[in-house]
Amino acid sequence: MASAPIHAKPGRKLKVSSVFAHLVLGGVGFLLFYPLIFMILSGFFTKEEFTTSILGFFPIPKQATFENYLILFKGSSETSTRLYFMNSLYRTLYSTFFAMLTAFLAGYAFARLKFKGKEGLFLTLLATQMIPGTIALIPTYLQLARWPFAGGNDIFTGGTGILDTWWVYLLGGPAINIMGMFLVKQSLEKVPYELDEAAKMDGAGALRIIFQILLPLQLPIMAFIAITTALGTWNDFATPFFYTSSDTLQTLPSAITRLSSAAIGPVGIPNYPMIITLGLGTTIPALLIFFFFQKYIVQGLANTGIKG
After folding, report:
1. Is the pLDDT of residue 104 over 90?
2. Who contacts 77 (Cβ-Cβ below 8 Å, separation ≥6)?
3. Residue 257: is its pLDDT beyond 80?
4. For residue 218, which of 190, 194, 196, 177 has the smallest C-alpha distance?
5. Is 79 left (phi over 0), alpha (psi -120 to 50) or beta?
6. CA distance 304 to 188
7. String of b and e for 59-86 (b: at least 16 CB within 10 Å)?
8. How far is CA 173 from CA 40, 74, 91, 93, 237, in A?
9. Cβ atoms of residues 105 and 180 within 8 Å
């Protein structure tokens, strides 16, 4: 009795377009991660070997050292990396909290309250987003330097104001997040007023309606505001660099620039491996924040009803 012929299952055909797309995505991904790979490998160099060697595409030291990474975590006689890290962390947490609070309250006011000049004020605040940040550096410096009754100032002139103090961070942190305010306003306008009226009929006051009913509905938006503000504050270089000078007030981004001059030796060559490693310590926390919370950025924008 002849057995039935066995037919081999046809293999899964690979589309040329799919292979090409994966190759392109893989190449772009490698280009994006290559600077990070270069920074990690450069951290194992000594200053002498880094400046005298011809670095290849993947720099591999002949005598690897962990000194730069120890400086990153423990600091040294020239660097207080723990202090810089804690300054960055405290400032980021403080600014993020107040950005969320002011953005939500301002968005609620423009979405729910009725007052004279509301539309004009709202458009004025949006217009400030068109001003480049570099233009505000000198006016902000003069404002901080002429702060009344601080740093030897009288009402208008004299003294140093609140420059080179923690007040630079404390007063600069709780500014209104204009983009966050706009997103909260757009989202709250989609929430029907009948929800507020029903809560009032149940005896809820204004604060309870705001923080127990409306705020939970805005959690994706608040997560978006928190993530973007945290990333912006953590990577902020200008504020500590231009408005502070004491080493105890430096954050990681500004400290790296200052350390580039402090690391210069007798031959006038900066300690590039140490500077690159400190830059790596600034980059990785920001990458982790974006990697783990990127879905909230998309979800927060989607909840506003904004369509691209």
Report:
1. yes
2. none
3. no
4. 190
5. beta
6. 8
7. bebeeeeebbbebbeeeeeebbbebbbe
8. 32, 28, 8, 10, 14
9. no
The domains located in the chain, with CATH, are 36-302 (1.10.3720.10)
Query: What tokens appear for 1 in the block?
Result: 């009795």
Q: How confident is the model at residue 193, as a pLDDT? A: 86
Tokens representing residue 245 in the block: 């000078």
Q: Which amino acid makes up residue 35?
A: P
Q: How does 112-148 read in b/e, with b if 16+ C-beta sit within 10 Å?
A: beeeeeeeeebeeeeeeeeeeeeeeeeebeeebbbbe
What is the C-alpha to C-alpha distance for residues 166 and 43, in angstroms, rounded to an integer?
32
d(CA 41, CA 50): 11
Residue 211 tokens read as 């923080």
Looking at the predicted structure, is the pLDDT value of residue 308 above 50? no
Chain centroid, CA 14 distance in Å? 41
Distances (CA, A) of 62 to 190, 238, 293: 62, 37, 39
Measure the CA–CA gap between 183 and 186, rounded to whole angstroms: 5
CA 209 to CA 196: how far, in whole Å? 7
Contact 41, 208 (CB under 8 A): no
pLDDT of residue 16: 76
Cα dihedral across residues 77, 78, 81, 87: positive or negative: positive
Tokens 């506003």, residue located: 304
CA 121 – CA 115 distance, rounded (Å): 10
Dihedral sign from CA coordinates of 76, 78, 82, 85: negative
